[in-house]
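Contributing: when you submit paired examples, paste them exactly as shown. First protein:
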Amino acid sequence: IENGLVEIGIPLKESKFELKESDPKKWRNYLLGVWRRNQNKPEVAELYASKLAIARHQVTQFCKQYPDLDLPVTFDSWYTQPAFCRYLDQELKVPYVGTLKPDHQFQLKSGRETVASFVKRLKQEHLEAITQDQTPLFQKITIPYKGEKEVYYTYCRTLRVHNFGKHRVVINFSRPDLSDTPRIFISNRLHWQAAGITRIRRHRWPVEVYHQEGKAEGLDQYQVRDFQAISKHIGLVAVTYSLLRAASHDLDLQQKLQRQLKYDFDGSRPTSLRRVTQAQALWSLGSLIATQISLGKSLEEVLSPLLASVYI
């Protein structure tokens, strides 16, 4: 970004250059700030692709490739930003379900109120209504998810969200006494109901699960800088994770591993299968060493090629 900004002629403050050595993180944030302030210029926008820019590009490409599909887009609170939501609604005209943070604000008749304050007030009114045998504010809903039923206690209204405009707002608790942490969703489809919005948002979780599981396979541990090399690394991690997911449905393989290792495990979970495959690899290595020694080779002869491969 630095070289690109200089070549284009965007000035950088001389006083900030010392941050390159003293505080690289602040230096990076400074460069990104300069980039954001000038990103309306095409030559500047091309220098750096933010996560929001990548998301816009991916959704746009999907809509172009599948123009007949009317599928909703759902995302977490980081992507729930006014410009991104307006782009989806006004430019692509696709339905979406976003996620609000506690410090977002509602524009009410009484003025602005943070999400956290609004939810706290609703919760108190709901509990008071129950003690007085009145209609509660949060209603029980049930949604299907992976062959099971999930229950939520929900408040659903159309409200104005500061900087976002009018949206359908859903506030969900998992416990009937509303003692857990709420999740707050918004949608640009004002006629949608709580169950539908919740069901759509619920399907974002598998993406987060893959991100967490992918880290266990080394998703964020690449030690290369070339984009093509990084792409290959991510591809290999995805293949590894896919094989683990496939193994969770391979009963013959699971039974074979259980016979070899004499170990009971949950074959439906990638985390369990990962540990089992590591144990099986160790078992195979031990079997190889034992076999070679039984054939008359010394331990040094067996281990030498294995140790040499570590340094290749």
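Second protein:
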Amino acid sequence: MSPDVLPDRDEAACLPELRSEALALYRAAVKAADPRRLVDRALEEEAPALAAARRVVMVSVGKAGLAMAEAARPHVAYRLRHAVVVTTAQAARPLDWARVIAGGHPLPDKGSLEGGAAVVSALAGLREDDLVLLLVSGGGSALLAAPPPGVSINDKVRLANALLRSGAGIGEMNAVRAAVSALKGGGLARLAMPAPVLALLLSDVPGDDVGVIASGLSAPVRPDPARALEVLRRHGLLDGAPRSVLAHLDDALAAPRPIPNPRVRNRVIGSNSISVDAMEAVLRKSGRRVLRVPGWLEGAVAQAAERLVALMREAADGGPAAVVAGGETSVLVRGSGQGGRNQELALRVALLFERLPSGTPWVFLSGGTDGRDGPTDAAGGLVDPLSLSRMRGAGLDPEARLARNDSYPALVASGDVLPLEATDTNVADVQVALLGRAGPDLLPGGARVEERETEAAMEPSPRL
């Protein structure tokens, strides 16, 4: 928004209410992905399969790894042989009944390597009447590392860092990870043979593809070295890729492809779409007209911002409205600033949107359901028509900050950082834009939004 175009007094007065409503909607989305509730419900339904197992080996991997494991334990306690939990350093804490390992995220580290070795060891010597209970949530690709012979953890870190900075999508990154791992691309399930695997998955990927979630630990797929090489080529990473990685991929092209474990059942128990459904349900009860971005919001963050702003402008015509979306954008890192994809998306929306000609008040929130956005102490960003003037008033140029991927200081200066929260889950990112003030018959400002029923069956909103 240019500094000489400011909202009128009435518009500015309702912004705190809209901001509170947006924040409560974000929390409703997180609540819909509560791993404890979802695991407990799923394992109640799986009681016959659990009862039939001689012994159970529990492997829980991801940002929600500890929460999922704790919810699962009462269902398998008497049959539990081994339990390995690999999660983030922020979430890790000791359990007297499980080995808990803190892995690296977003880049693998020695802890990730330790986690991979612990999982391989726990799967050794299983029988066909045993059961592997696999609990998977977002972040598992980095947290768990088991590189093939000849590839060091340092080489994996170099590769992962290059992929993160290249702007590659999550599906592309995980295709490469799966091809350079003993556990990913169905490797964990193959190591469990002849035992069956029951996998409960919290999905943070497009289409809830089990071959992409945590790089497909239990997927009925085989690693695809040809696709991995194509991803590296597409993003200009072949010349800089570690030689050990390229040698492994070349060898894998000529080797027989491994046979998947035929005794695997994958259940997606929570997903980004379910969390967006929760926001949509609350909004429709509030009386707002809701427009939903179809499918998965992905691709370059600049293009995602343009798409969202176009829908926001359309939604602003016709009374109080909302736009909801979910997914995971990618940022091509060109500068050395601080930020994350959600903060950059929020700043881009603020710059693109300006003030609506009608004077409609608005807010826009983009946040990670894991409560963290990039290497910062923020979960995302929450902007409004005054955000840019607050930044400029603090002496910051938002356009210049954006050019060097430095969204975090800009949002801190304007008071628009979404607070860091420990959510114990991860189903990627969610976005919500609120346009127009809520009237007396609409939801009164968000303080009780997340207490509303969010699981009711509702007719779908218009998809654009």
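If you have annotations for the second protein, write them as plain sentences, like these:
Confidence is low (pLDDT under 50) at residues 440-464.
Residues 203 and 385 are 33 Å apart (CA to CA).
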